């Protein structure tokens, strides 16, 4: 089954608690002017994840955006993260990497940080009109996230891993 490596990964870490406090979570996200990034949007009820009938295609023109990277080192297996130059950098600088299973967005707590930042941008009375303004708003959004929210996300890792194991590696509510 497709999710078995992910399930094994969770089982190996099912007893972790304080260990998560020593992990640096990293990821990237794209924020666009006008908030249209050309990705398909999905509207669904709980339990209907990945059901193609709920996909809504959006055809949009090219948009300008900013890619944000945060070192809050877990990293997923996106191509830039596993590129030879990246791996060489980590090895040269003695950075220890937490292995991360492919196709595992359910458990990455940083995804919720991007959501918080995106919601803040959506609630702006005057959305940014230039890349520089977008960058400035992203810095403000990042700085406004309370540390206790970040701590809460990190403390949620044992629950995330436990739910993954309970669901036999299938999707979780995260």
Give a verbal description of the structure:
The strands form 2 sheets. Strands 1-4 form a two-stranded antiparallel ribbon. The chain is of the alpha+beta class. The longest helix has 14 residues, at 131-144. The protein is 39% helix and 10% strand. The protein is built from 7 helices and 4 strands; from the N terminus they run αββββαααααα. The chain is globular, with a radius of gyration of 18 Å. It has helices spanning 4-12, 79-82, 84-92, 110-122, 131-144, 147-155, 157-166; strands at 26-32, 41-42, 55-56, 65-71. α4 packs across α5.
Summarize the structure.
GO terms for molecular function: nucleic acid binding. The protein has 174 residues and is α+β, with helices and mostly antiparallel strands.
Question: Which secondary structure elements does this structure contain, and how are they paired or packed?
Answer:
Elements: H1 4-12, E1 26-32, E2 41-42, E3 55-56, E4 65-71, H2 79-82, H3 84-92, H4 110-122, H5 131-144, H6 147-155, H7 157-166
Antiparallel strand pairs: 1-4, 2-3
Supply the key terms.
two-stranded antiparallel sheet, Tc1-like transposase DDE domain-containing protein, Transposase_5, 7 helices, RNaseH_sf, 4 strands, 174 residues, nucleic acid binding, 10% strand, alpha+beta
* Count of DSSP H/I helices: 7
What overall geometry do the principal axes of the alpha carbons give? globular
Intertermini distance: 21 Å
Strand numbers in spatial order across the main sheet: 1-4
Helix content: 25-40%
Supply Rg: 18 Å
Provide the residue-averaged pLDDT. 78
E-strand count: 4
* Subunit organisation of the chains: single chain
Relative strand content: 5-15%
- Give the helices and strands as they follow along the chain: HEEEEHHHHHH
Instruction: Kindly name the structural category.
Output: alpha+beta
For the largest beta-sheet, the strand count, sense and barrel status come to: 2 strands, antiparallel
